[in-house]
Amino acid sequence: MGDKRHRPLNLEEIRKRLAQARGAQYWRSLEELADSEEFQQILEKEFPRQSSPLGAFLHRRQFLKLMGASLALAGLTSCRPLPMRKIVPQVQQPEEMIPGRPLYFASAFPFGGYGRGVLVESHEGRPTKIEGNAKHPASPGAQGVLNPQAPAQLNPDGTPKHLGATDAFTQASILTLYDPDRSQSPMYQGQLSAWTDFNAALTAEMAKQAAVRGAGLRILTETVTSPTLAALMEELLKKFPQAKWHQYEPVHADNAYEGAKIAFGEPVHTVYRFDRADVILSLDADFLYGAPASVRYAHDYASRRRVRSGTAEMNRLYVVESTPSVTGSAADHRLPLRPSQVQAFALALARALGVPVSAPQLPAEQQKWVDAVARDLQAHRSRSVVVAGESLPPAIHALVHAINHVLGNVGQTVLYTAPVEAQPVNHTQSLRELVQDMTAGKVEVLIILGGNPAYNAPADLEFARVLKELTQRNGFTVHLSLYEDETSALCLWHIPESHYLEAWGDVRAFDGTVSVIQPLIEPLYPSRSAYEMVDALLGRQRTGYDIVQAYWSKRLGTANFQKTWRRILHDGVVPGTALPPKPVKIRTEAVVAAQKTPAPAEELEVVFVPDPTVWDGRFANNGWLQELPKPLTHLTWDNAIFVSPATAQRLGLQMDTGGLANMVDVVELRLRGEKLRAPIWIMPGQPDDCVTLALGYGRTRAGRVGTGIGYNAYKVRFSDALWTASGATLAKTGDRYPLASTQQHHSMQGRDLVHVGTLQEFRQNPEHLVKKHSAEGEHLSLYPEHKWDGNAWAMVIDTSLCIGCNACVTACQAENNIPIVGKEQVARGREMHWIRIDRYYEGNLDNPSTHLLPVPCMQCENAPCEPVCPVGATNHSEEGLNQMVYNRCVGTRYCSNNCPYKVRRFNFLKYNDPKEPVLQLLSNPDVTVRGRGVMEKCTYCVQRINAARIEAKKLGREVQDGEVITACQAACPTHAIVFGNMNNRESLVAQLKQQPHHYGLLEELNTRPRTTYLAKVRNPNPELEGA
Amino acid sequence: MQGQIVRTEPATELIEGQHTYETVTHKIGSVVLSYRHPRAWYVVTAIAAFFVFVLITSIAWLLLRGVGIWGINQPVGWGFAIINFVWWIGIGHAGTLISAILLLLRQQWRTSINRFAEAMTIFAVMCAGMFPLLHVGRPWVAYWLLPIPNWTGAWPQFRSPLIWDVFAVTTYFTVSLLFWFTGLIPDLATLRDRAKNRLAQVIFGVLAMGWRNSAKHWHRYESAYLLLAGLSTPLVVSVHSIVSLDFAVSLIPGWHTTIFPPYFVAGAIYSGFAMVLTLVIPIRALYKMQDFLTMKHLDWMAKIMLATGLIVFYGYIMEIFTALYSANQYEQYLITNRFFGPYAPFFWALLICNGLIPQVLWSPKVRQNVVLLFIISLIVNVGMWLERFVIVVTSLHRDFLPSSWGMYVPTIWDWGLYLGTIGFFTFMMFLFVRFVPMISIFEMRDLLHQTDRHHAAPATGAAVTPAASTEVTP
Fold it and tell me: Most buried among A95, A158, A383, B61, using CB within 10 Å?
């Protein structure tokens, strides 16, 4: 110990420190008390992981192996190290607990403050898979949509018969629960600390604040819709009247609320009823993806596009947008315009529909669009919807309210309610006020509940700098979050937050419906929820359960509370909490007065969008979402600046798709003096002179998966230009950068892969939608035809309905223990997803039509993969499944070569190699985890089929239609995927196979696929067709 | 019987210089028995040994990490491993053709090159055999491809061409090895008898299996050798036909082609003869064997290359014609992709190497130019490798669904294994040259006997056992 830093213990100092301490302070040794460097060293030796998280980081590539999300089954007995004590085994089995049989619990996934209903599958106490809760408005099930005579709610074994739909975020949220990078202990100034220390410090600080009525207390949250949390905050603000509650979330509907204030004088919330709409116009609104109501909206939108023989009715979707989106790709007509042009378009449309505004002169082609759309909307008064996107300024939102009013849509397809959020404030404004207070020295205690403002606040607010200074000035800054992230690093204290699957809470859905968030597992690490944190601020130590239950018992009354409470938990929704429609009065003069003629921007315009997979950056450490091919681009592990083909040509930018990865040019984007280096992506359908930046990347402290990838678009996002900005310049740097995309070719090469026709054609001659090939339906073999008796599993996918939202891909990954492989492996073409969404472009480069084709295994009756396997590892089941025997597979990859659909996936390396025990909890025990050198592929979720068959057998009957729901089918928001027994003539799948526009992919090869498709039917406006 | 052979060429050109039985035996046998070797032998063997280490390293890393260290992916599930497998198997074919078919056809010129070519076959098949074994995802269970009775009752799947491959290649290897060894026995006895070193005497003695040069031995030897030649002959056709079925049985455009079996066999013989030339030309110079490996040999091998090369080229043309004539859009795209796609340089190089350049062999002057022949043989080797590359990679990388199209780029480990097998092959060939008579001594003596140059007249009456008169041991 000849270390220079070795100092003798200063007993005097220790005495002083102990004297200053409040409350019980426990200490282990004098060294600890002295907080000497030696002690810190010992601490580091003992807890090397926590001592310096950055130093201990594995390289991201190595980590990918650890994150291989599905793991060995053995030894999964507990989720936390248990004390070594004698235990008494369960002599009697707990009720409902049957080993090997999962239980489902209703809960809700809070995302951006809004809830999506979920049913969580739990195996012996560990959650493994998330399904949608069909009873929840934001996660609608297929019941009643696909089959009006749908029978009972539950299967005989208690599994839910009707699972609700979800989105990819909901599906992937379970991986975050088990993320080994989650913070596991309180941190004080970046050093490991103890809960007792934090509690003591917090108590002391709150006592000080109580003395000044909270004058120095600030709470910063994300969007809050939770009634319980809102009540707690109210209580807190009552106790500390001088304290302030700020909210900031980088993706928030500020403009929509401001627009509503202009139009109605109050911040009302808008709910759309797309199920009642014949004509939909979206003005830069990606309502089918990412929004709190997207799953519901996709469900409703699709419910009017289910074209079947005899009932051929369809809605029509127009999209005017400044960046290609999921909604845009689903549109019957899509018009790419720059943000300034979208505004001009809105004004012109409003004028054409009779709103008294002055509109700028539009180019002829746009004017043609305006006229056609206006006529179509007029023709469908009260059965149309115009939706404005968040990127549009408040005035345009107000204008769109006026348009809907003029069209008589209000009360029909457009409903207004009171705000769902507990306190709808302008988030940017709220954060600005906080920053002003912090700079002015008014803030002593700052409690940040969730969020990551140091990373995602607008650049000009300089929140990170202000926060750092506050901490340096001895401000008591606390960050409660799942990860020790950028914001935590700048705070005095970091406190681990409980994941929603391990903490009690409640949350409102887009329509106000409340769900109680029910935890599925004890917190994996000692952590707190926001509820418990605010309760602690109030000087209490209640558990989350007590807090939430106390609130609801008060609100629902004590009579029969326990019964009601059980009902609420069981159903996952609190009945009668949906917000009622609110009568509003449009203030047309104010709307008109608010309009400004958009300045025609000559320079480059910039559009910001939340990233379609990592969103605002919160999912940066989620491997499933990182590797999820982004809709339209199929890009993984990176974000890029979207540039239109013409603009790229003008600027001399290149994207080389010839090799393994896409080698693209790196550009430097300058906006108001800020610089950003980023790779480009040449995006067909992007408006010219307009670039799109995706938020959520460039994280510096995301964790081993998400740190240091992509560029940080927040660097050029300013508080007055959150979604669009102009005046940017783009310069080529000469550097090149590899981007890993899962689809390199975008043309169908004249092959009949997605058959497309119009509604008109379908009505006149439905058979002609599909180009028939010679082999179809004929028996082309020397051998007698095989008879498929019993169950014959089959799937039909309606390509008219697929919006490419990726929910199926992530659901499949979660259900089937599919590993992630990392960017380099994706670039090599080794991604493992069992279902993929092929996207083909048709038409011109500047505004192509997009055709989507979800491709799982076709389960061919004449499967080309089977005869070539030298060891018979892939063969056919009696029920028509092309099955893989993993144990038998030696890995020749001949099957994959001979698969014309290329749906087989090979474990080229040991992708499933979990070194982190916590990830082992995630695996679905019903699905084999595949090792290195083994082929795998879609099984039609054979584990679900078997579970249903066993139940049916016990009851002595056949498996009923709808009893087996595959993971992809359950997740699909538009219910485009239908699965069932095609030998059962009554089954939906058998009926769909009789549709005139039914076809099989590459049927001419005589593979006789069981997975088949319905041709894509569009509903174009004859006025615009051919334009 | 020998008297009945109709010689189409003057046999004098098959052995040059003034030779007696003793000088033949000495010239060939001393290479094995002498301690002194050309410096080039040591240099080449050392370099080859280095690549053997490269091979061992590549295999070790492969077993440790998995086939993901290679460039294979979705959609190109087979890469260098299968390309090299087919290439090596093809190279082996010349040996069998020379030793078996030419024997049955009583082509005497095979005598000087058959030992050499057979050794080449064995080592080439060893190299080839490594690849399918190592390219599977789980090499430790690769034995499941063998029909081994086991308690699970699980058998290989006999419909798969890969199983046919297993049978074809193992049979081929076994028969080739037996054939080669049987042919070696009289020579081993010669070496046993001439060796001065005790260890060599013991080893050659054991390997000679008690050969005592009796008439009975010769009778049995001749019968066995002929039988093995008869067994080998169909293998020349069957092995590469079956290898081609790996591709032809599938439904991938570019693979699903009925012309493959004959076209592959022709290609195999083509590349095999190219490899024989590649090896024979330097070794002939190194060990001054020009007397036994004459220009006539080289000339005839060049002619066979020309002939088989034209068959292969016909195959290329038929593939293109079939695609165009079929009106099958996938086949047609494949051809377009080969000509103009990302791997087009490989295809053009293939046409030049295999189609264009070998046409100079029409000229007798070229066939008489050893250096040119050597260069052309190298080019044909490269061309045949490119052919397999084009078949495997360009067919797979863009098949039916454009969404799944991808690229294949080999990694350093692909190259490591490939160059490693070339090193192994060279290493084994040089060891062979060092430890085994590279030319069949007794057959050369027989040839000498028949050329009427040593004796004034052939032995009268009964058939003369080959070289019987020279079996006088020192």
Answer: A383
> Nearest to residue B275, comparing CAs of B87, B427, B31, B85?
B87
In whole angstroms, give the CA distance from residue A861 to residue A882. 8
State the Cα–Cα distance between residues A189 and A198, nearest whole angstrom.
12
**Domain map of chain A by residue range?**
11-46, 187-252+423-571, 254-417, 631-741, 756-770+788-1018
Question: What is the per-residue pLDDT across A991-1022, written as a single tens digit (0 to 9) for each?
Answer: 889 888 899 998 888 888 999 999 999 999 98
Q: What is the CATH number of the domain that holds B183?
A: 1.20.1630.10
Residue among B65, B72, B74 with most chain A CBs within 10 A, to mutate: B74
Please state the domain count of chain B: 1
Alpha helices in B97-211 (DSSP H): 102-104, 111-135, 161-194, 198-207
- The series of mean pLDDT values per 10 residues for chain B, 474 residues long, is 43 65 77 80 93 95 93 91 93 83 79 85 92 92 89 87 91 90 90 88 91 90 89 87 92 90 90 89 84 84 91 91 88 92 93 91 90 93 93 92 91 94 93 87 79 48 41 37
Question: Could you say which residues of chain A have pLDDT below 50?
Answer: 1-6, 47-57, 69-78, 144-160, 1027
Q: Does B170 touch chain A (CB under 8 A)?
A: no
Whether residue B138 and residue A898 make contact (CB cut-off 8 A), yes or no, is: no
The CATH number given to A187-252+423-571 is: 3.40.50.740
Which residues, other chains included, contact A694 with Cβ-Cβ below 8 Å and sequence gap of 6+?
A608, A609, A610, A611, A612, A639, A640, A713
Residues 327-366 on B with a CB inside 8 Å of A are: 329-330, 333, 342
Confidence at residue A303, expressed as pLDDT on a 0 to 100 scale: 87
**B215: distance to nearest CA of chain A, Å?**
48
Peptide bond into A151 cis (omega under 30): no
The CATH code of domain A254-417 reads 3.40.228.10
Instruction: Say if B458 falls within a structural domain.
Output: no
Q: Determine the Cα–Cα distance for residues A879 and A385; give it in Å rounded to an integer.
A: 46
Pair of tokens at residue A408: 């008589």
Please tell me if residue A935 touches chain B, with a CB cutoff of 8 Å: yes
Give the gap in angstroms from C-alpha B59 to the nearest C-alpha of chain A.
Answer: 15
Q: Answer yes or no: are the C-beta atoms of A136 and A573 closer than 8 Å.
A: yes
Q: For residue A83, what pLDDT is reported?
A: 53
Judged by a CB distance cut-off of 8 A, whether residue B147 touches chain A is no
B405 touches chain A (CB under 8 A): yes
CB contact under 8 A, B402 and A888: no
Distance from CA of A750 to the nearest CA of B (A): 9
Model pLDDT, residue B97: 84
Find out if CATH 2.160.10.10 is the number for domain A631-741: no
Question: Does A187-252+423-571 match A254-417 in CATH topology?
Answer: no
Range of the domain at B38: 2-146+155-451
A565: its two tokens: 């409470």
| Cβ contacts of B66 on chain A, cutoff 8 Å | 907-910, 932-933
Say whether A867 and B404 touch across the interface (CB within 8 A): no
Q: Assign domain A756-770+788-1018 to its CATH architecture.
A: 2-Layer Sandwich (3.30)
The answer to whether residue B167 is domain-embedded is yes
Please tell me the predicted confidence (pLDDT) of residue B7.
42
* A contacts of B156 (beta carbons < 8 Å): 870-872
Q: Which residues 625-644 on chain A approach chain B with CB closer than 8 angstroms?
A: none
Give A277's contacts (C-beta < 8 A, 6+ positions apart).
A304, A315, A380, A383, A384, A385, A413
Residue B286 falls inside a structural domain: yes
pLDDT at A738: 92
The kind and range of the H/E element at A429 are: helix A427-439
* pLDDT for the residue B292: 80
